[in-house]
Amino acid sequence: MLRTLAVENYRSLQHLVIDLAPLTVVTGANGSGKSNLYRALRLLSEIVRAGALSSLAAEGGLRSALHAGDRDRGAPVALRLGFAADELSYAIDLGLPQPGVSPFPLDPEVKSEAVWSGEILRPSTIAADRRSLRVRVRTEAGDLQVAPWSVTATESMLATLADPDTAPELYALRERARGWRFYDALRTDPDAPARRPGPATFTPVLSGDGGTLPGALATLLRVGNAAALQSAVGEAFDGAQVEVDEDDRGIARVGMRHPGVRRSFEAAELSDGTLRFLLLATALLAPRPPGLLVLNEPEASLHPRLLPALADLVALAAEQTQVVVVSHADGLVDALRDSARVIELERSGAATTVRGQLTFEGPAWSWPSR
Length: 370
What we know:
Helices cover 24% and strands 28% of the residues. It has nine helices and 18 strands. The strands form three sheets. An eight-stranded antiparallel β-sheet has the order 2-1-4-5-6-7-8-9. A six-stranded mixed β-sheet has the order 10-15-16-3-17-18, sandwiched between helices. Strands 11, 12, 13 and 14 form a four-stranded antiparallel β-sheet that branches. The longest helix is centred in the first third of the chain and has 17 residues, at 34-50. By secondary structure, it is an alpha+beta fold. It folds into two domains: 2-22 and 35-178 and 345-354, no CATH class; 181-339, 3-Layer(aba) Sandwich (Rossmann fold), CATH 3.40.50.
């Protein structure tokens, strides 16, 4: 489980170190930095999973993503991201290339990285580290030796790792992060893939846009916690139940049947809020739970009366996987408050801070040196 998230100089997150729990709710007013925290966590996961910095380039490059507030005069340009976990922890330090050296002077370079065991970074806990282009990994004998593979300045040391036997900790970290799930783009528009029929194949994971809803919902109803799904739908929609009808070609249609109505309503007929609730329920009750599930503003297009049922699903999911919810809906936050760690963000000038937490308070954290 992730215990700590640390971000430095990413947009409004000048210096933020927060505790994470099995269920963490991040809230705050508009403009307080909730979306920046979500994007930082997603960027960090993409770096660990793929090793490339393309996601940062898509944001406009390092200069666009850097904190826009005052910096210490003479301090190096640095954007740092990291997390501490029960088993393996990770941190990366990004900066700009030396003037006149790179043909792309605005592209970020990796200045240092580290993977270590446990939550606290110490020399004795380092499993692998990287400074500039040199990577070291800890051998079976217990010493750090230069790795037999090369890296480029614009990619993480995890990108070129090919042999799990050479650095099993790095490989385990990368594979674990590849199982994390982020949902911030579930589509409910008239042309959304979730509104169309789809193959009723075994689909234990809902896709990021919700397009695999027919298969994922059929899988959940057949081999997952169907009772929890139907209970949540019934609570949210006055006793309604979900149906998945499959034809002889194996094509499934998602529908919802209400008490006293002679036919079910297909996904194409459902309101945006109803369809979004079904998508969220399917993601939260997935038969193959991830190590980390992150929801960004799941309340979008939902009527406030649906939030208690959604909160129950979130709390149920947190019994099997670590969940982070980013939300400004008071109804959802209040419904989760008793079972979650609630972190309220606020904006002080150009910097995001945690309400009630002084600067440099929070969990113990140290960055790898350049």
